[in-house]
Design a protein that fits this description.
Low-confidence stretches: none
Strand content: 35-45%
Structural class: alpha+beta
CATH superfamily: Peptide deformylase
Oligomer: single chain
Largest sheet: 7 strands, mixed
Number of helices: 3
Number of domains: 1
Mean pLDDT: 94
Number of strands: 7
CATH class: Alpha Beta
CATH architecture: Alpha-Beta Complex
Distance between the termini: 20 Å
């Protein structure tokens, strides 16, 4: 497996729309494995293919339960709201407050190319939404609850109880 290079802002590849994957084949599975390895090495909980410079609709997420790979994911349903701090592997050392759904249902294809439905709440819902945004060229900074409030991680490290997920 390969540890891929994470593309960082303001690289224009982060703002372009990813293309649908016509079929899940060995190449797509290898990409997903490499993305997981890269995400773990960067201490993230999610990663989208555009974050490693590949304009394909592939995401990986692991919030501590089991790794999830979704190809061509789409949010099918969302309920309630949660506001929390988010970081992004493509905007290292920056965090901001973002409003996301508390619960989502996402449809796509799994690692083997079979139709899959993933339901998640809390951090999993947040991570799925964050990664799907990347597929549409949207960064978390576009969704800040207050666009004037973006912090460096070091500024928050002194604040007790502040959890930040880096995706």
């Amino acid at each position: 497996m390969a540890n891929l290079t994470i593309v960082t802002y303001p690289d224009l590849r982060l703002s372009s729309q990813a293309q649908a994957v016509p079929a899940v084949n060995q190449r797509v599975r290898r990409l997903a494995r490499d993305m997981l390895e890269t995400m773990y090495a960067a201490s993230g909980v999610g990663l989208a293919a555009p974050q490693v410079g590949i304009r394909k609709r592939v995401i990986v997420v692991d919030v501590g339960e089991n790794p999830i790979t979704l190809v061509n994911p789409e949010i099918a349903a969302a309920e309630e709201e949660q506001v929390g701090l988010e970081g992004c592997l493509s905007l290292p050392n920056l965090v901001g407050e973002v409003c996301r759904a508390m619960w989502v249902r996402v449809k796509g294809l799994d690692f083997r190319g079979r139709p899959s439905v993933v339901e998640g709440e809390g951090l999993l819902a947040r991570a799925l939404e964050h990664e799907i945004d990347h597929l549409d060229g949207i960064l978390f900074i576009a969704r800040l609850t207050d666009p004037t409030r973006l912090w460096r991680v070091s500024e928050l490290s002194a604040a007790a109880g502040k959890e930040v997920a880096h995706m």
